[in-house]
Structure formats: C-alpha cells, structure tokens
Amino acid sequence: MKKVKMAIGILLCSALVLGGCGGSGNSPASTSGSKTESTGSSASSAASASSASSSSGKDSGEKLTFEYFATSMTVEWIQQIEEALKTLGEENNFEVLSADANRDINTQLSQIDTAIEQKIDGAFLFIVDEGSAPAAVQKFDDAEIPVIGETLKLQDGDGKNIAPYVELDAEGVGSNCGKWVAENWESTGVDLSDLSKVGVIQNTNSKYRSDLARIDGFMNELNGGLPGIPESNVFMADCAAEATSNDNTEASYNQVAAVLSAHPEIEAWIIMGSVDSYAMGACRAVEAAGLEEKTILVSAGGELAIKEWANESGACWRATCYYDAMDFAEKMVEGMLSVCRDGETTKDIYSDFKEGGDEYAAVKISGNMCTAENYQDFTE
C-alpha cells in the first residue's frame, strides 16, 4: 500500500476546552450524499479541514483515542485501512484501537458497548450488517461519541443516512471494469467473437448492497459494449451462501468452481469479482479448471491483484479497478478531527458531498483501472 501522508495542520491551543468529541450531534437523517472524490485527491482536502482548533474542540496537544470497528481482520483491505489509520495517528497525535467482529454483528455491537464504557473519543465503523447500522449508530449517539462509517452505508431502513460515511463509488467502479472488458478483450487473447458461447460470472455477495452495485455497474457497461451475451449465460457465484466463513477466498472458490463445472458448454468466461478476495478465489477456481486462457477476470480493489502480478501469477486476472486504503483513511480522519479538534458536528463535515436536503454526507471514493502492465504506477 502506498503511503500518502496527510497534512492535517492543527494549531495548538493554550488550554483544553470541552466539546468536540463526545458531542457528535447525530440524529436520524434525511437523504444520502453522492458526490464522488477521485482516488488520491483526499490529501489536499484533509489539509484544509483541520487548520485550527475551535473554541469547542479539544486541544491538539491532548492525545485522542479512536477505535476502528472492523468486520474481519482477515480481510486484506481491512488490514490496510487499520495500518493507514495508525500511520495517520502517529502523525496527528491520536491512538487507534481495533476491534475485530469476526463477521458477527452481535460481537460488534458488544464491542461498541465496551468501547463506550472505555470512553473513546471517536469511532470508525465498518458495519458487519448494514441492516444493523441504526442500532450501532444509536449506541454512539446516546453516548455522544462521533462515528464515521467506512465502506458500507450507515443508513436507516428507508435508505436515509444516519451518520457520515466514506464509501466506494461502487457502481462507478463496476462500470469501469465493464468498460475495460468491452474495450480491451481482444488484447487479452481470449476469444469473445462468438458471444453466444460466452459466459459471465457475477462473483459477489448478495448480502451487501455495495457489492451488488458494483455488479450492476459492470453489467450495464458490459452489455452496452458487448451486446449479445445471452441472459441464460449469466450466472451468480454468491458468496453469501457461505457468509459464516472468515475466508472470502474459499467461499468464492467454491461458488465459482461450481459454476464452471456445471457449464462445460461455455467456451469463454468473463468474471467480475466485486472485491479482490472474491476474485482471488475465482482466480484459483479458473486455474484448477485449466481455463486461464479462456477467462477474463476483473475485480474491484487491487490489493490482491497487485500481489498476484508482482509474483507473476494470476494470468487470468486481467485488470482491477484500484483504490487505495490511505485515501479512505485520510478522509475518515479529516472528518473525525474536524469534530474532535475543530468543534464541528458530524452533520457539519464533508459539506461539499451533500446533495439536496442531506443532513449527513456520503463521501464516495473512485478508482482507476490497473493491469499487470501498469500496476507499479499505482504502488510507487
């Protein structure tokens, strides 16, 4: 993961004043934000957000304690977010604790209760189950602890934002992948000339709206660029069927392998992995079936794809829409320090990302297509 330092300038105050963290101002919201921020652009906005401590924020000389509530620390992406947060903490005088829910929402809710008792200053929340977001956010609201979501939405049952969150521009990332396949398939050496014999595998997890949005974006661009693939040749390898597994790669391998073995009539495959860990399982399943030269695998994420290419493996993994954990972490920290040191509320932050009558913003981070030929440009 590239290390992009965030310049968060904070003027030292002479005395500690009350407010900021411990007064999030969260309450049920109205609608979601949708402005998109390009990957790599959050550093500049972070620099301007925390330029001075206000009369209601905490002195920057006092070390803050934030906690990162993760779905599962076995996921490469989550490990990178944790590392990025801790790097930024070292640079900006705050400590980052981590809580691994092991994909269990009840565990995560219990961890939140414990953190509240320990009086943390703020929370970064990767919710295990989006449907449980209201319960989780309410706990923080009642304790007046600011919370900022990561990757998954923090919304109520009506789809209204109940806290700010930083997410991937999911549909846009999927669209990038679909467009890449439609425009570059000939360069891969995989023959898609007879679309009636081409199969598509949607390698995803139907439990998560973000994952499904990536698939929707992918299919829209793919069908627009390569019209003629029969609907009967489109299959879903749904990892939700093994949702209790801590290994997305294993779940994906099983699902994709089942589709491949059930359809020997397909002569060429296009696979979209909605996250890299799914794509890794798909890659191994393709290799086990001996179909590397007949498969175009693309994904969203990039962290595992780049490792494969660096090791000169994963030949069927043709491209990924790359986004960097530091870009997410910088934006999360920018918002949290605006609350805890500048005295803003969570309704105030990320105002440029609000639309219409939004109370809480949804910051969307976009990505760029990356291949085995140019991946080093993204890791320097």
Please, what is the CATH homologous superfamily of the largest domain?
Answer: Response regulator
Q: How is the quaternary structure best described?
A: single chain
SSE order, one letter for each helix or strand: EHEHEHEHEEHEHEHEHEHEHEE
Alpha carbon gap, first and last residue: 9 Å
Main sheet properties: 7 strands, parallel
Q: Which structural category fits the helices and strands?
A: alpha/beta
Gyration radius over CA: 21 Å
Could you say what the CATH architecture of the largest domain is? 3-Layer(aba) Sandwich
Q: Give me the side-by-side strand order of the main sheet.
A: 1-12-6-5-4-2-3
The CATH topology label of the largest domain is: Rossmann fold
Which strand-content bin applies to the residues? 15-25%
Tally of helical runs: 10
Question: Which features characterize this protein?
Answer:
380 residues, alpha/beta, Rossmann fold, 2 domains, seven-stranded parallel beta sheet, six-stranded mixed beta sheet, 18% strand, elongated, disordered N terminus
Any overview of this molecule?
It is a single chain. By secondary structure, the protein is α/β, with parallel strands linked by helices. It has two domains: 36-168 and 324-367, 3-Layer(aba) Sandwich (Rossmann fold), CATH 3.40.50.2300; 170-322, Response regulator (Rossmann fold, 3-Layer(aba) Sandwich). Helix content is 36%, strand content 18%. The chain is built from ten helices and 13 strands. The strands form two sheets. A seven-stranded parallel β-sheet has the order 1-12-6-5-4-2-3, sandwiched between helices. The chain has a six-stranded mixed β-sheet with strand order 8-7-9-10-11-13, with helices on both faces. The radius of gyration is 21 Å and the shape is elongated.
